[in-house]
Structures are given as structure tokens and as C-alpha cells.
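Justification of resources, computational component.

The compute hours requested in this renewal are based largely on the per-chain cost of generating structure records like the one below. Each record pairs the submitted sequence with a full C-alpha cell output. That output is archived, and it is also reused by downstream analysis tasks.
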Amino acid sequence: MDITIREAEIGDAVGILRIYEPYIKNTCVTFETDVPTAEEFAKRIRNIKSRFPYFVCETDGEFAGYTYASAHRERAAYRYSAEVSVYIADRYQRLGIGSMLYEKLFESLRERGVYTVCAGVALPNEKSVGFHKQLGFNEIGVYHGIGYKLGKWIDVLWLEKRLGGYGVPGG
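The structure output for this chain reads:
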């Protein structure tokens, strides 16, 4: 299996959206309820890439997964943190692609001066919780009943990971 991880491009929107669409339609993993158009998704990629890294994984020429970071919060003091997400196409689950994508993302975030990353996991989702813990994330709290999708209220577990030692930023 030939695996390539590279920076996402605006033209990747359709391929990335093919991975994301089943999560929107069939799961509570994302709180999004309507599938965006390819044009809307391309705009999202452009906006994220203006400030944060965004990577795709191709396996034998097919999109297998993607990861990106975004602002955790907008206030200036949060600028050294980021929220992270990773999505893997169903047929490429459990092959280590998520870990490879996240490691590439974390490396890029360290280079950009990000010290802490946060991830939200809709519950129940032991597979995702275990995956994040395996990569060094620690649980920090649960938002109870924070979302409503597919006829049920959903809790979200928040996890954090330290990317490096805390010092004076830029110092």
C-alpha cells in the first residue's frame, strides 16, 4: 500500500468531502447536519489554510483521510492553542493513517508555535477516545447534552495534548 501525506489543496475539496459526508449523514461524530457543497468546502479549506495546517492522506491514489487544525477560541491569549480534527474513510480505518496524519499535524503546529491542542469527541465513541488517549491526549471535561442530532442529545468529551514545554512564546 502506497501512503502519501501532503498539504491539502483547494482542489482536494471533492475528495475530502467524500470522506466527510458519511460522518455528517450517518453519525454524531460531527455536529454538522447538512452536507456542504464542494464550493463551500473549498472555501473552508482556504480559510483554515490561511492560518493553520491542513493535510490529506492518499493511499494508492485514493483519498484515505484528512486532518486539520483550527482556532480553539478567538481571543488573543488563545493563539498558542488549536483545536484538531481527523477523519478517516471507512475502508482505511485501523491502518494507522489517523496517527500518521495527527503526527504530521502536530509537527506543523509545533513549528507554528502552538503549545496545546484540544479535541472534542461526541459520546459514546470509545474508539475515538482510545485513539486520542493512545496519542497522549488527556481528558479535561464533558459538555453534557451540548448537541442534538439524529434524534438524541449528545455529550462531548474534551481532551487536550501538550505539544511541548511551556516557555515564553517566541522567546
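The chain has four helices and seven strands. Residues 15 and 63 are 6 Å apart (CA to CA).
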